[in-house]
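Progress narrative, Year 2. Work on Tyrosine--tRNA ligase from Corticibacter populi advanced from sequence curation to structure prediction during this period.
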Amino acid sequence: MNASNIDNLPLTPAIEEALAVSLRGTDELLPQEDWIKKLQRAEATGTPLRIKLGLDPTAPDIHLGHTVVLNKMRQLQDLGHQVIFLIGDFTTLIGDPSGRNTTRPPLSAEQIKANAETYYTQASKVLDPTRTEVRYNSEWCDQLGARGMIELAAKYTVARMMERNDFHQRFQDGSSISLHEFLYPLLQGYDSVALKSDLEMGGTDQKFNLMMGRHLQQEWGQEPQCVLTMPLLVGLDGVHKMSKSKNNYIGITEDANTMFAKVLSISDALMWDWYPLLSFRPLAEIEVLRAEVAQGRNPKDIKVLLAKEITARFHSAQAADAAEQDFVNRSKGGIPDDIPEITLGGAPLGIGALLKSAGLTASTGEANRLIDGHGVRIDGGTVGDRTLKLSAGTYVVQVGKRKFARVTLLA
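Result:
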């Protein structure tokens, strides 16, 4: 079907719905006119569009920040399009320089392999695995060889590469930029060539890399992909984007009680940023909830709805209900029904050593800081003395709001 035929196709209700789904919560959709034409062609020919998302397995876990784009991908998948979950096992050897002010330390091949093995399993909690094409970019990147890499590098200029904000800023600051970092956006763009993608998705920090895909597809004589960027999800701290390195994340494999409580911990203002990105409720319904809060409804009620929706998505409705009850019990000072049972020896044992040995803190130093901050309880009473020694017996130990253990201490 040629371009003139596409221009004459009508904007049907199905295409209008697909466009609305595409635009919900989106930062940019570029070029929108080309995306409409692709949707029109797909409807007219019955050929699904190829929609690509690449993730580098730099860590073993996927968190809620990753699911912002995965959710959008699932929505387009449900409209009948072919989604491609690309695991960047080759590009992880370089490390994505996007948003970095230093060269990213490389991971070993063993680390990458171990992380990659868990990625798709976790992504399948969002995507329909029976309708998802899974690829690894080592399939074509390994085959490039030195000659192919030189030919690829010839497709872009250093001047244009230095237009990237992070590269430009690092150059201005006198920070080092390794030559291999220039290869990252080129290889990500080459992924689009290899997969013949119609749309590539990513966070706003990926825009340069996504646009590289358009450029290289044109260099290879392909129709250029469209680019869809989603906002970066702000983490639990309300300041930085969700990241394991910032410890402000919610992993999608975390237990239901922890997941629910972490969502409840975000600020009321941040909740409204999370709703359109993480909730599947219609936008009109979210606006009704916002209006109810403006009219006096307790915002915690609305936050509970979000926490239950997210927890149910990755666990079950029953688990979400139980997590809510667990949170209520804890907020009243109650003890959860199901807490770890731990037996330790060495009584009398110092409280710091006990907390570390029970796995409630990472170190005795952390234990001491929590005690100084009144964050440790024994049988409901706050511990204020870091030199406390516990004799043989059984104790319910609480650290912070969410960590509990029933510790039996033996002589």
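Residues 179-195 form the longest helix (17 residues). The chain has a mean pLDDT of 89.
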